[in-house]
């Protein structure tokens, strides 16, 4: 089975089943990563080389194992589809984002704050309705890139081992890639590797968002605003996404007790509940666009 048809099968499986309810492989991997970090970074005193060694220990054996299994006759095609299915988070993104929008529509701000807290790492306890809508919209745009499009990209580039390497790397960045005393040195490798793996996918996502929304505004916001953002990959994705939707994102946000003044992204009014849904629809449309282009190319080649 070609990688294109395996990719379609993986997306369909995610749409039908969503995340595994029990024994999610990424949950098990997270526990493994915690044990590796505790042993390799005791007291938060490890050097960058220790962080790189820990990354290799956590990621490479599982990547190689999946690569071997994917080459086996009879079951290799199933391993490929399952690897992509486990790595994708398209249905899960909607399951987490839509309750935020629904709570805002009902005027239940405490519930909306609680729900958006599942999506973002910022402090959501004191957010007003606009702050919740902004956090939800930003999260959908950024997580769409990380949990959907980048996974598809690396699957198409390198099959099952490619998507496993990417997803495990992205998970380690979420766990170790903090700029604080404990992870500043140890998590450096995880953060830089994730930045490298997301560089091309993020820009393809930004282009997809632009093509599916207010194209001229999205391209202008990407060009002018993305360089001001701290993250080299989230900047293009969120600037283009905000421009495509015609809303203003960014601004002040509290992370781990510290208030961060972030540059504005996009242009237009602040987001509302419906903009969370619009951002989610942008991700869905982007996924359909990618799959349609891939299938068209596969049929053309045939």
TrEMBL record:
Superkingdom, taxonomy of origin: Bacteria
Residue intervals passing through the bilayer: 52-70, 147-166, 282-300
GO MF annotation list: ABC-type vitamin B12 transporter activity; threonine-phosphate decarboxylase activity
Pathways per UniProt: Cofactor biosynthesis; adenosylcobalamin biosynthesis
Any one Pfam family match given in the protein's UniProt record, by short name: CobD_Cbib
Gene Ontology cellular component list: plasma membrane
Predominant location category: membrane
Bilayer topology: Multi-pass membrane protein
InterPro entries found in the cross-reference section: Cobalamin_biosynth_CobD/CbiB (IPR004485)
GO biological process: cobalamin biosynthetic process
Keywords for the protein's UniProt record, in alphabetical order: Cell membrane, Cobalamin biosynthesis, Membrane, Transmembrane, Transmembrane helix
Subcellular location(s) of the protein: Cell membrane
Database matches in HAMAP family: CobD_CbiB
Entry's family note: Belongs to the CobD/CbiB family.
Function summary: Converts cobyric acid to cobinamide by the addition of aminopropanol on the F carboxylic group.
Protein's UniProt name: Cobalamin biosynthesis protein CobD
Native organism taxonomy: Bacteria, Pseudomonadati, Pseudomonadota, Gammaproteobacteria, Pseudomonadales
Encoding gene per record: cobD
């Amino acid at each position: 089975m070609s990688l294109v048809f395996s990719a379609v099968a993986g997306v369909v499986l995610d749409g039908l089943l969503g995340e595994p309810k029990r024994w999610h492989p990424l949950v098990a991997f997270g526990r493994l990563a915690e044990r590796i970090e505790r042993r390799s970074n005791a007291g938060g005193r490890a050097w960058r080389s220790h962080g790189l060694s820990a990354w290799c220990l956590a990621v490479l054996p599982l990547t190689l194992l999946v690569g071997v299994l994917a080459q086996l006759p009879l079951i290799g095609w199933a391993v490929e589809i399952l690897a992509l299915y486990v790595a994708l988070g398209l249905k899960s993104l909607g399951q987490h984002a839509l309750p935020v929008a629904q709570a805002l529509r009902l005027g239940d701000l405490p519930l909306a704050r609680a729900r958006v807290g599942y999506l973002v790492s910022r402090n959501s306890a004191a957010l007003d309705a606009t702050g919740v809508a902004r956090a939800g919209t930003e999260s959908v745009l950024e997580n769409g890139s990380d949990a959907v499009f980048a996974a598809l990209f690396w699957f198409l580039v390198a099959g099952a081992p490619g998507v496993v390497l990417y997803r495990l790397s992205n998970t380690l960045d979420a766990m170790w890639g903090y700029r604080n005393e404990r992870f500043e040195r140890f998590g450096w490798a995880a953060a830089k590797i994730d930045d490298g793996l997301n560089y091309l996918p993020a820009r393809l996502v930004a282009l997809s968002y632009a093509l599916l929304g207010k194209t001229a505004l999205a391209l202008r916001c990407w060009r002018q605003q993305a360089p001001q953002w701290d993250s080299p990959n989230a900047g293009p994705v969120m600037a283009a996404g905000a421009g495509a939707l015609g809303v203003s994102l960014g601004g002040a946000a509290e992370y781990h007790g510290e208030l961060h003044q972030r540059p504005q992204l996009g242009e237009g009014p602040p987001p509302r509940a419906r903009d969370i849904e619009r951002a989610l629809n942008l991700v869905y449309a982007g996924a359909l666009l990618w799959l349609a282009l891939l299938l068209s190319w596969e049929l053309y080649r045939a």
